[in-house]
Amino acid sequence: MMDKKISQQIAFWIFRVLGILVIVILFWILGFIIYNGIGVISWEFLSTSPTEGMTSGGILPAIVGTVYLVIGSMIFALPLGIMSAIYTNEYAGNSWVVKFIRVMTNNLGGIPSIVFGLFGMVLFVNTLGFGDSILSGSLTLGLLVLPLIIRTTEEALRAVPNSYRTGSLALGATKLQTIRKVVLPAALPNITTGVILSIGRVSGETAPILFTVAAYFLPKLPNSILDQAMALPYHLYVIATSGTDIEASRPIAYGTALVLISIVLLMNLLATFLRRYFERHKR
Asked: Please, are residues 247 and 186 in contact by the beta-carbon 8 Å criterion?
């Protein structure tokens, strides 16, 4: 008995140390970026276009392009992913077709992002003729996060007790009414978790937008979804590796990284607020 208690205490301390280590690493990375990037953050930096070979000026086109890509990809991926999860979990049962779909969805989620970029270039840019545009980039990023949204939505639907469904059906509601009025509202807080993870991944992807939308230097805002756009991840890569004066542009790179992290944080906070709102509404 004493050996079991000692082993349990050792295991708890190992987990505790590892958890603290993860937090320390996270704050060290954030502190490093904030320390090196906060000096260039200003209203001019956030509201103007880059100049002088991107060694000065601001990053407004990259910020706007990133926001457009996040919104566009979510508009495409969220309805398709949620409806796919509803079908596999609520309608299709547990047949071999559903099992095959789930296996293929998991495999799709493990494909490197650069493969999605090549696929998006072939399908959206060349075959469908959308060209290098916000539309092509949004559709490619939507495909990239689609497996994540499907998996998280399925798990959220499974977490809803079956008593909710049987009770609704017993009161005379149809299958569709039960899903729309009972199951989805109960699962919505957990579905929001998938949205948070998807936004974080879309915001930081470089390879897919490299082939479908990102412009090396485009100091103007896009006018339509068929225009090219700058994006923060690709802009960060460019100014950190291939600028005309890498040393001069390094503070801008850190500032760009800080802005990118801040945008992801703000979107996550908004999604977390919506999650808590839906949880309170569910109660």
From this structure: no
Q: Are 109 and 241 within 8 A, CB to CB?
A: no
| DSSP result, 107-164 | HHHTS-HHHHHHHHIIIIIIIS---SSHHHHHHHHHHHHHHHHHHHHHHHHHTS-HHH
pTM for the structure as a whole: 0.85
Assess contact for 239 and 25: CB atoms under 8 A. no
Spell out the domain ranges in the chain.
2-40, 43-282
Give pLDDT, residue 246.
61
Given a contact cutoff of 8 angstroms between Cβ atoms, the answer to whether 238 and 54 are in contact is yes
Which pair of structure tokens corresponds to residue 104?
């293929």
Selected from 3.40.930.10, 3.90.1580.10, 1.10.3720.10, 3.30.365.10, the CATH number assigned to the domain covering 43-282 reads: 1.10.3720.10
Reading phi first (left if > 0) and then psi (alpha if -120 to 50, else beta), residue 278 is in alpha
Lowest mean pLDDT among 33-37, 167-171, 228-232, 270-274: 270-274
Which residues touch 183 (CB under 8 Å, ≥6 apart)? 90, 157, 160, 164, 165
